[in-house]
Amino acid sequence: MSSSETLVMENNLREIPRMAGFVERFGETHRFSHGDTFALTLAIEELLTNTVNYGYPEGGKHELLLELSLEDGACRAVLSDDGLPFNPLDRPEVDTSLSLEEKPIGGLGIHLVKKMMTRVEYAHRDGRNILTLHRKLGSEDGPPAQAGT
Amino acid sequence: MQLHESQENGARIIAIEGRLDGATAPQLDAGIKSFFESGGKSLVFDFSQLDYLSSAGLRCILQAVKKSAATGGRIAACGARPAVREILEISGFLGILKLCPDRAAALSEIAS
Q1: Å between A41 CA and nearest CA of chain B
Q2: Could you say which DSSP state residue B93 is in?
Q3: Tens of pLDDT along A128-137?
């Protein structure tokens, strides 16, 4: 049984439901918990949205690739695009304790990615942004399972 | 995603069913916008049928909470499932949006 699947997407937010269905089927095949599938879908959506919204200021149709695989009790998701080089991990941390008046609208996406994934890595190679996400499997809702559990 | 809007004890209830993500958030934004434009102030979000929530949805909710506060209204939410509750908590939303166990509690929260 192959444990790696690839989805080719366009740079368009309309791809979100197709991506979610793809992650859900992968999760069903490999018996992910609801929380693991939810968290992976969320992290991928946040990164996909960033790329679609900011990666292509000149517009045009581009190909975004998503590869899911299993690795040692974790799910690995690799998302790549040929948009402007941009490392979302460089964004300053958001302060989630701010009051209603001070709370900014937006900026939460990357915060959620970091919280819901065990590890996130960025590389820029051959003209592509490559984001690699790992989530250790086995947790119910919320942050990933801890190593050793 | 489907929105189910109803009116109870003078307050608007918006029940969100399905997935609130970057593809569906504009639909909720439009619903919230028309509610405030028609003079509405207080609102209950019913999350009991909400399966999924990402930052695009959080943005809509935050805008609604800000708008309501600016017009002197109140907002509460109810029925969040564990995964949705986690997202609200991790994002710091439990400090700005009262999460109640059910509609009745949410309605009395915004009435008090």
Answers
A1: 9
A2: G
A3: 999 999 999 9
Interface with B, mutate which of A14, A24, A112 (most B CBs under 10 A): A112
Q: Taking all residues of chain B, what is their mean pLDDT, rounded to a whole number?
A: 95
Range B73-91 average pLDDT:
96
Question: Which uninterrupted H or E stretch holds A124?
Answer: strand A119-125
Closest CA to B32 of B8, B59, B10: B59
Say what the pLDDT of residue A11 is.
Answer: 97
What is chain A's percent helix, strand, coil content, to nearest 5? Answer: 35, 25, 40
Sign of CA dihedral A135, A77, A45, A100: positive
Residues of B in contact with A108 (CB under 8 A): 55, 58-59, 91
Mean of the pLDDT values across residues B35-54?
A: 96
Are A142 and B23 inside 8 Å of each other by CB?
Answer: no
- Candidates B15, B76, B80; CA nearest to B43 is B76
Give every residue of chain A whose pLDDT is below 50, as ranges: 1, 149
- Are the CB atoms for B111 and B90 separated by under 8 Å? no
Task: Quote the pLDDT of residue A149.
Answer: 44
Name the closest residue on chain A to residue B54, using Cα atoms.
A42
Between the CA of residue B82 and those of B7, B50, B62, what are the distances in Å? 26, 11, 20
The pLDDT-based confidence of B10 (bands split at 50, 70, 90) is confident
Residue B65: list chain A partners with CB under 8 A.
Answer: 100
Whether B83 and chain A come into contact, CB under 8 Å, resolves to: yes
Distance between CA atoms of residues A68 and A5, nearest Å:
5
